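WARN retry 2 of 3 for item q-0093 after timeout on previous attempt; input resubmitted unchanged.
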Amino acid sequence: MYFKDIIGQGEVKRLFINEAKEGRIPHARLICGNEGVGTFPLALAYARYISCTNKGENDACGQCPSCIKFDKLVHPDLHFIYPTIKGKSVSAKGSDYYIKNWRKFILENPYISFNQWLDELNANNQQAIIYSEESDEIFKKVSLKSCEGGYKICIIWLPEKMNEVCANKLLKLLEEPPFKTIFMLVSEAPDMLLQTILSRSQRLNIKPIEETSIANVLKQKYGILENDSNTIAHLANGNYIKALEAIHMNKENEYFFELFVHLMRLSYQRKIREMKSWSETVAGMGRERQKSLLQYCQRLIRENFIYNFHQQSLNYMTNEEINFATRFAPFINERNVMGIMDELSEAQQHIEHNVNAKMVFFDFSLKMIVLLKQ
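OK item q-0093 returned
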């Protein structure tokens, strides 16, 4: 990943390039942004540029020994930490165990999402976290002398997934970083990090990608017609992953849409038996997919509420979702929208805390009976 490969984000790229040229590289950088805006690709391109031994004016050279190793993500001074699951044996966990999967995953497309990574791991019902043992591995790696005489760089993807022990040990490293060591924390939920980690990291918030930048990539790389690329870019709302999903028809979102529509109809018709069956179906999906479903439902409720104002530029829905909204949106109004969003948020918190999923979803569906009538 080079700076030239990153979609939009020109201001951030110039900042990183100037920092490297002037030797003002912070030892701990917290790169924050929503999924699909390019936080991880920016970290990867920045790491390449720092390590490049023949830097160009605006990008890494692509020819030096460092760049050649970065092409395969095998540079000895580049380390990755990311959420993983437990395998069949006790030792079958942690970033080093899954490094082959990780390199393959990143090289295919650096614009990554947590759910895509779970699919790569075949996580099923398991929740991926950054285990406490990772902090010991980080310490070992960065305590060693740099193999190539430059910086040692550790990219931690989704540090909010660290368990408490790992987070506390990382804090000690950030307080007293080893010589010429850089930590890049790539986060989608920085508020979930320890306050002490936030205070010891230089935070940079990444904005959504401009619609024109996404539309141009869709036209140039995928041959999408101009009108279609503009529509998809608007729907993506600054998220390149969403734009790709719109092209390749994300089956998971289609399934979530079907579940959402089915529940709304059952709740409106007060079909309790069928609602219980719906809850049991969702309970069998696995925790991470359940959380994704609840996030999808929150987005669709919000979009249906905004649809009532007849401001097309403010809506971000697929054609199928819009067709449903023409009939459903009137039921989402100022009397119930906050109540529904609060119930969805509470359900998500319960799922994150391992509350029985059948109870959570059945309880939510029963509350929808009342809320939809308001």
